Amino acid sequence: MTNEVSVFIMDISNSSKGNSGNELSEYLEQLKSDITEWTQNTAVTKVSHRAGDELVVISSGYASAYTLAFYISRIWKFINHKPYFGLSIGDIQEDVSEINIETWIHPLMKQARNANDYLKKQQNRSLFHFALPDFSNEQSFTIFSKQFETLINTILTLKQEQINEQTEIQSLVCSLYVMLGQQNKVSQYLERTTATISHHMKQGKTQVILHAFYDIVKVLDSLGMQDKQHLTDKLQTNIKQHVRNHLNEYFPKERKL
Question: pTM for the complete prediction?
Fold first, then answer.
């Protein structure tokens, strides 16, 4: 029996510039702990912090790695050192719980590395890029893996344009709305009127960005033979609950603009 998994390799832009190396490394260690907590009792996940500025994740379910990557991008605190994620999905023979992530060699890791390298070469770097193995000899959806890769990356590119156009306050409002789910809760936390929050959401295209994210997650879940939507839903619930319980740590006063 094969197991459906997703992988990401995360790198950090401009990590060697400035004097943030140690701080970034400590931050990634904290993220590693967060991911372990977020995925507890949901997606079986292995995570590794490598080479100072790299995070590697293997997780059960086609949508899990992208879901984790998206939420990491929304809580990320280093504006001048943004993360970027090379992603892949596919089937493996091993059980994720038995994988030694430090030594695991698999085509999915190579594809995630290829996706990461693609982003590394971009001048205006996107946050996410998928590279899927070529399964043209298979009978499931994977026969069209390259077509799915093109479509998903096109959506991600268009979504990136909208994210790039957000001002700092629009981005913050978007991130808080992801976690809190209600405009009035965002307005209370930021001590702004609901009308102001609504304006920032509209101008920052919050709903458009989130709909694109949710649609990609649904599509990734639907591609699998195993029903993983409940897993992805629970994963998102866990992440949001954890962030809400530590909201001042993820979005401290100095980030309230």
Answer: 0.93
